[in-house]
Design goal:
heterodimer; A: alpha+beta; seven-stranded antiparallel sheet; six-stranded antiparallel sheet; B: alpha+beta; 18 helices; 13 strands
Chain lengths: 324, 533
């Protein structure tokens, strides 16, 4: 029994943020529920981005009703590549990436062929809410396909990596790069077999990587090192994440950014309940950094680490933190 | 004030209030905080035993909650038999149906039915008065006049006697009194031998009989004179030792049902200790597929410990007595008992989810499954449940090809689940098992929802993850079921419903618990091991 308490104490020493603490002390205290629809709705986020001038993938068409499916060829025009997304989807569910056309057929990123009818079928199940949170009827978005940046070529398998920045009170607290693998089927979600790579906030260098909770150094499919590379446009990525965090009005938020080969960093989406796996990817707990931000000591992330005597926000069981 | 302080303060307040009320209740009521005691309160134990010849079924009669008799704290226990209480629509007849549990071999079976009752209740509840009014309503035309088994009012000897006794008497009351006089005085008393008992005609012929035979004779005589009369079956609480059913008579004398006991010489009024189980020739215990069925009743008066101190209870004591859950009619009492367990089930879920970190399908679905298991037989119930989820999942996979919209798809799945359940019931019936013991209470909607979630999780996160969650759901449900089948837990909640305050306090505290979940110690194990090395 005692080892349990020892293990818990060790996690606390390491500053690992647990899910109860995240929910009670960060999400419930800092994220007003009224702002959740904004981040859960990709179209609202896009409108926000357009308003504040943050680049985001172009939306070709929004399909809201089944009758609109008849006009699908009209909406697509002669576009050869695009992405289908459920407006309220999460974790990459229901996303269809079309990379090319062969006569009347559409080609997926993994080489599968889809007829127009099959594409309609997929869109129809998106509309029915098959992939949306809570199964509510949804809209389908036909979106610009982001092109893989050359810097990421060695690091990804049939998909686009994305950068997740977790921000607390508009300050980046931790960042990771998520790399798609063969196992994750082009999606960048960690629990589906994507690689989580910790990124140093100051330098934008990748420093640690995990695959299914185990430390790795090589990409399992490309067999190339994933640690020690520089994320392109790093300062722009951080700047963009700060702007978004400030605009969405959430105190604790995850911002997902992709880097397009031509257009540079673009906002993909924001998340009001960012996961905790980012700590495993960085091999570092979040608490010290969050406490540093709270103490207004946020400009440099490295300083937070060096200062060992800093108060760690007292996130024991039943924290006594005053809420903001 | 920080939110955590607010939570801790509220929780302490609730806990203090809850514990304080319990202590106060114990102080004021003493032993009575559990069950009312004092004059007019009895505990009755009915023990039935028999030899099963395979799939035994027993039916025992239960007392009515009406007039000025109140029944509470019913408990039914048997290792071999599964109890189910059955009430007629208006509550005018109650019985306890026992069926043999699965995997119980042939041989001796025993069932114990205990209840508390208060007689001569000063303030009958509305439901008690209402039922009394219904059961003592004027008879409809022809009601309680025809012959019934053992009572044949049209036999010549009965007619002759009835005519002789009532000749010259006009008013039904006088006629009934005359008939009573004869059965009471002339017919000799016999002890009850058991068995079907003598008929009215046999009783008259022998000139002697037990309570049942004498009552049958009196009913036959009354009915012969076109006076509606009926048997009343029950217990005489006044007698302390072991006893069997007692039978007496009620006759409609124009304005009211006049009670009479031709065995113990009561006419016009029977003592309040005559506890009514029902009207008519009710058998206290009967059975199918059993041999050597026998039963016995034990009556214990509940003496008040505090009666010597003061005769008049204090206002507080009266308040506690009035608000005690024991004042509820049996059906409502069982409902409240069930409701009181829900918050405990919810608390157990909080512990599993937030302190341990076990995943389950649906947040409170395991609570409902757990409570359903509690009333069913746990192990077979769980097996049936899991197999239905798995069968449903298989069907859901097939259904996926059809690309149906969500609501019609769920409706279709629900129909399929219903078909599976009906097939299970049919198959069980074919195997001579009462399937209702395992499937009747399953919340179908929850099952359907769970199948849908199982499928979603399986497609999105893989089979391991979905089976893990299913296992988590079952573990939570089983814990709830096991904890809530501890009799002490249930009786404590009923005796001290204020314990809900304590449960709320725990829920509040878990609501602000920011420590690690047990599962996170595993999830972040790399961080733990690094410091050790």
């Amino acid at each position: 029994m005692l080892w349990l308490f020892r293990a818990a104490r060790r996690l606390r020493e390491k500053g690992v943020l647990g899910i109860n603490a995240r929910n009670a002390a960060y999400i419930l205290d800092h994220n007003p529920r009224s702002q959740f629809p904004l981040v859960d709705d990709k179209l609202l986020m896009r409108n926000l981005c357009l308003k504040i001038g943050v680049p985001t993938p172009d939306v070709y068409a929004v399909i809201s009703y089944p009758w609109m499916l008849r006009k699908l060829p009209e909406y697509l025009g002669d576009r050869t590549d695009f992405v289908v997304k459920p407006n309220h989807g999460s974790a990459g569910r229901g996303v269809l990436v079309i990379v090319g056309r062969d006569k009347s057929d559409y080609l997926r990123h993994n080489g599968e062929r889809l007829t127009l009818e099959e594409l309609r079928q997929h869109l129809s199940s998106v509309l029915s809410g098959m992939y949306s949170l809570g199964g509510h009827p949804d809209q389908a978005i036909l979106q610009q396909r982001v092109r893989l940046h050359t810097d990421f070529e060695p690091l990804s398998y049939k998909g686009i990596p994305d950068i997740r920045v977790v921000l607390y009170r508009n300050e980046p607290a931790m960042a990771m790069l998520r790399l798609p693998t063969r196992a994750s089927n082009g999606r960048a979600n960690l629990h589906q077999g994507g690689i989580g790579v910790g990124v140093d906030l100051d330098t934008g260098m990748t420093n640690h990587a995990v695959l299914r909770n185990r430390a790795v150094t090589l990409h399992p499919d490309t067999r190339l090192p994933v640690v020690g590379m520089r994320v392109p446009y790093w300062s722009e990525v951080l700047k963009m994440s700060r702007r978004i965090a400030g605009e969405v009005g959430l105190g604790y938020v995850g911002v997902d950014i992709v880097v397009d080969a031509e257009q540079g960093p673009m906002l993909l989406e924001a998340n009001a309940r960012p996961g905790l796996a980012i700590q495993i990817a960085n091999n570092k707990g979040l608490l010290q950094r969050l406490a540093a931000i709270e103490n207004g000591d946020a400009k440099s992330s490295s300083r937070a680490e060096s200062d060992e005597h800093m108060v760690v926000g007292r996130i024991g069981p039943w924290s006594h933190r005053k809420s903001a | 004030m920080s939110r955590t302080t607010l939570v801790v303060l509220t929780a302490s307040f609730l806990a203090t209030l809850s514990v304080g009320t319990s202590i106060l209740r114990l102080q004021v009521m003493g032993q009575e905080s559990k069950v009312p005691s004092g004059p007019g309160n009895y505990k009755v134990t009915i023990l039935v035993h028999a030899k099963s010849t395979g799939d035994a079924r027993l039916i025992t009669a239960c007392p009515l909650d009406f007039n000025r008799q109140h029944v509470y704290g019913e408990e039914y226990t048997s290792a071999e038999l599964f109890p189910k209480i059955v009430e007629s629509q208006n509550g005018g007849r109650r019985s306890l149906h026992w069926s043999q549990r699965v995997a119980v071999p042939k041989g001796p079976v025993q069932a114990r039915y205990e209840f508390y009752c208060g007689v001569d209740v000063h303030r009958p509840s509305t439901s008690m008065s209402k039922l009394n009014k219904a059961l003592h309503a004027p008879p409809r035309a022809g009601e309680c006049l025809a012959g019934t088994p053992g009572v044949d009012p049209s036999r010549p000897e009965i007619t002759k006697l009835a005519l002789d006794l009532s000749s010259g008497l006009e008013h039904p009351v006088d006629q009934v009194r005359a008939l009573f006089q004869y059965v009471d005085q002339v017919v000799q008393k016999d002890p009850t031998p058991g068995g079907p008992g003598l008929t009215a005609a046999e009783c008259l012929q022998h000139g002697r009989g037990d309570a049942l035979a004498k009552s049958r004779l009196l009913v036959a005589l009354c009915r012969n004179r076109r006076i509606p009369a009926r048997l009343v079956t029950g217990l005489m609480l006044g007698r302390r030792h072991d006893q069997t059913a007692h039978v007496w008579v009620e006759a409609w004398v124009g304005e009211y049902w006049m009670p009479m006991c031709p065995f113990s010489h009561y006419c016009g009024k029977v003592p309040p200790t005559y506890l009514v189980f029902g009207f008519g020739d009710i058998v206290m215990a009967r059975g199918h597929n059993v041999r050597d069925l026998d039963y016995s009743c034990l009556v214990e008066p509940q003496r008040s410990v505090k009666a010597q101190d003061s005769d008049k209870p204090s206002a507080l004591a009266r308040f506690f007595a009035r608000t005690s859950l024991y004042a509820l009619p049996p059906a409502e009492w069982r409902l409240v008992e069930f409701l009181l367990l829900m918050p405990i089930a919810a608390l157990i879920i909080c512990i599993y989810r937030n302190l341990i970190g076990l995943q389950s399908f649906g947040t409170f679905a395991p609570a409902l499954i757990g409570l359903a298991f509690r009333t069913l037989e746990s192990l077979p119930g769980i097996l049936v449940f899991v197999s239905i989820v798995l069968i449903g999942w298989g069907m859901r996979r097939v259904l996926d090809r059809y690309h149906l919209l969500q609501v019609p798809r769920t409706a279709f799945l629900l129909t399929l689940v219903v078909i599976v359940l009906i097939s299970a019931v049919l198959a069980a019936n074919y195997q001579d098992l009462a399937a209702t013991r395992y499937v009747s209470l399953f919340p179908i909607i929850i099952l359907t929802g769970m199948i849908e979630r199982f499928w979603t999780l399986e497609t999105e996160d893989g089979t391991t993850s979905s089976f893990k969650t299913l296992l988590g759901t079952m573990v939570i449900a089983a814990s709830i079921s096991l904890f809530l089948s501890i009799p002490a837990v249930v009786s404590h909640m009923v005796d001290f419903p204020e314990t809900l305050g304590l449960i709320m306090a725990c829920q509040l505290l878990i609501g602000r618990y920011t420590g690690y979940r047990l599962s996170e110690l595993f999830r972040f194990r790399d961080f733990v091991h690094e410091t050790t090395t």
